[in-house]
Write a structure and sequence with these properties.
The complex is a heterodimer of chains A (354) and B (219). Chain A is an alpha/beta fold. Chain A has helices at 2-6, 11-24, 30-41, 57-63, 70-77, 91-104, 133-142, 151-156, 172-175, 191-204, 217-220, 224-227, 231-236, 246-249, 268-271, 315-342, 349-353; strands at residues 46-51, 79-83, 109-114, 117-118, 127-128, 131-132, 144-150, 169-170, 181-184. In chain A, the strands form three sheets. Chain A has a five-stranded parallel β-sheet with strand order 2-1-3-7-9, sandwiched between helices. In chain A, strands 4-8 form a two-stranded antiparallel sheet. Chain A has a two-stranded antiparallel ribbon with strand order 5-6. Chain B is 74% helix and 0% strand. Chain B is built from eleven helices and no strands. The chains are: A alpha/beta (354), B mainly alpha (219).
């Protein structure tokens, strides 16, 4: 705690932070204290953060973690040995820091990856210090105790993997098979989810319980729709039809405007964003479904889930073909009838008397 | 394929295929049926009260004398599930949104609880009708594969849709995808099975009524 106090973090605010995290992760109340003790006592574990095909949005999101100086807390509790955006070093010095961290903490460090890994053109689409992302990932993952795939790109391939995937982008778990990996998808992910997973790891020495997509169940256990404060309007059949109609002003359900909340597992509706200020649906825009695999290719953001995801390309052709076949069949039938009529032989009285 | 990719497929490629086959099939069969025509009836038409096409269209919706008592499940269950289906398909807000995308216009829907109630009634009615078909020896004897198959084609979309809304058995995403997939199966098979009565029922009633009305028989 003395170390934390030096950084202006009081015991009270630290405990409060830990308790918030514990409750956010649905852990028992005592876990808050356990987390506080573990994190305060822990030797600052080394964390290496590798950026691949990404937009730095994930890093931006984490640095905007608003709850009582969470980011300073976490960055002081852990030893962030390599993070290109946040580190002062550059060039050879940065590379050296990375190699030093790997050497000193081999088998113990936590590896965070944001961005997808391009496999196209032997990985030439994204390189750091002359090395392809694939090479770097394999090398650094070797000594990692666990890997956190930060954001939808690292977790599922994200926007770089979107059709037609020009760079051959894949997720971390497509490449690394022999290390525990936790996926924290989102574009970007929620800061408290990130800090929660880190706190869990520091306290219990393991990753939290994951769902089948490798996401922490505590944060990705329920859909946006099921936790949405506008859910009642959905049930009443009250929908905003445009972004500026009366329904929109009344805060009615955004389903018809394309909200993907019903099929998106994330914690936005409960944790909110920007220090609990708001979240997309509260600000009047439907959920994009950014924490789901291939969300970019799941049809328009502004089309309701029950609408066709893509234009129905062959329908007009099928209708024309159907009409043509129908007309052809009717001609065949008429020809048959005329043939039958022509072949008809009149029966006469003598015929019957034969 | 993950569940989200599955959903995207049924909302995209799958839907496109299903609607294409549906439209093609419907047009072929309607043109085929209505272009057949009949020979002109040269006999003097007989005029009898209640013997006309329109009369038959309505009369056939009403049970014949004593039949309601004889097979109440067929009539009442039949009414309940047909009306239930109409409510579910045409008055559930997400479904209206689907039609709006295809047709370009929309109409008001019902609150989801009301549609949910209609869905439960429809499911119960359809199960009773199935049980009736199994338990009555004559009905069972008369049933062909198509009768069981078309029952399943109609029942599955209702069941999966209701289960998706109620969050039963499978995650919503998967159940929603299964729901859309079963609707697509229904669309693909509808034009080529007895489910095509959705398009021909009133036309054939009117035809029978007119032909028989010409002979002075109220059917």
């Amino acid at each position: 705690m003395a170390g934390l106090a030096q950084h202006g973090v009081s015991r009270r605010s630290f405990l409060k932070f830990c308790t918030t995290l514990a409750s956010a992760m649905a852990l028992p109340p005592a876990a808050g204290l356990a987390m506080a003790e573990a994190m305060a006592a822990a030797r600052r574990p080394s964390v290496i953060w590798l950026p691949f095909q990404e937009c730095t949005g994930c890093t931006e999101s984490i640095t905007r973690s608003h709850s009582p100086t969470i980011e300073s807390l976490i960055f002081n509790v852990i030893s962030l040995d390599y993070q290109e955006t946040l580190m002062a070093a550059a060039g050879h010095q940065a590379e050296e820091a990375l190699h030093q961290a790997i050497k000193d903490n081999f088998g113990k460090y936590l590896l965070i990856v944001d961005g997808s890994v391009p496999l196209g053109m032997d990985g030439a689409y994204s390189t750091i210090g002359g090395k392809s992302n694939l090479e770097t990932l394999k090398e650094v993952a070797k000594g990692a105790a666990a890997i956190v795939a930060m954001g939808s790109c690292a977790a599922f391939g994200g926007i770089p993997k979107a059709n037609p995937n020009p760079t051959g982008a894949v997720s971390v778990s497509d490449i690394i098979k022999d290390k525990p990996i936790v996926n924290i998808p989102g574009c970007p992910p929620i800061p408290v989810v990130m800090t929660g997973v880190l706190a869990h790891y520091l306290t219990f020495g393991s990753l939290p319980e994951l769902d089948k997509l490798g996401r922490p169940k505590a944060f990705y256990g329920e859909t946006i729709h099921d936790r949405c404060y506008r859910r009642a309007f959905y049930d009443q059949g009250k929908f905003a039809k445009t972004f500026d109609d009366e329904g929109a002003r009344n805060g009615w359900c955004l389903f018809e405007l394309g909200c993907k909340g019903p099929v998106t597992y994330n914690a936005c509706a409960t944790t909110k964003w920007n220090g609990g200020t708001s979240w997309p649906v509260e600000s009047g825009h439907g959920c994009l479904g950014c924490s789901e695999p291939d969300f970019w290719d799941a049809g328009s953001f502004y089309k309701a889930l029950s609408m066709p995801a893509n234009p129905l390309k062959t329908v007009a052709g099928a209708a024309v073909a159907g009409a043509a076949i129908g007309v052809a069949v009717s001609f065949v039938n008429r020809a048959k009838k005329s043939a039958a009529k022509a072949a008809h032989e009149t029966t006469t009285l003598p015929d019957l008397e034969k | 394929m993950g569940e989200m990719q599955f959903l995207t497929w049924v909302r995209g490629t799958g839907l496109n295929l299903a609607i294409s086959i549906f439209l093609l099939g419907v047009l072929v069969r309607l043109l085929e049926i209505y272009s057949l025509g009949r020979k002109k009836d040269l006999a003097e038409p007989r005029s009898v009260a209640g013997a006309s096409g329109m009369n038959t269209v309505f009369r056939r919706s009403i049970p014949a004398d004593g039949m309601l008592k004889n097979s109440p499940i067929t009539y009442i269950g039949g009414y309940v599930f047909h009306i239930g289906l109409a409510i579910i398909v045409f008055l559930f807000a997400p479904h209206i949104k689907f039609f709006q995308d295809l047709l370009g216009f929309s109409w008001p829907g019902l609150p989801s609880q009301a549609v949910d109630f209609a869905a439960v009634l429809t499911i119960v009615a359809m199960l009773l009708i199935l049980f009736d078909r199994i338990s009555k020896p004559v009905k069972r004897y008369l049933s062909t594969f198509q009768d069981w198959f078309t029952w399943a084609l109609t029942f599955l979309p209702v069941l999966t849709g209701w289960m998706a809304v109620q969050h039963l058995l499978l995650p919503y995403t998967t159940m929603l995808a299964l729901h859309i997939l079963t609707v697509e199966l229904l669309l693909v098979f509808l034009p080529f099975t007895k489910l095509f009565h959705a398009f021909t029922v009133f036309g054939s009633r009117w035809y029978n009524g007119t032909v028989n009305g010409h002979k002075g028989v109220a059917v």
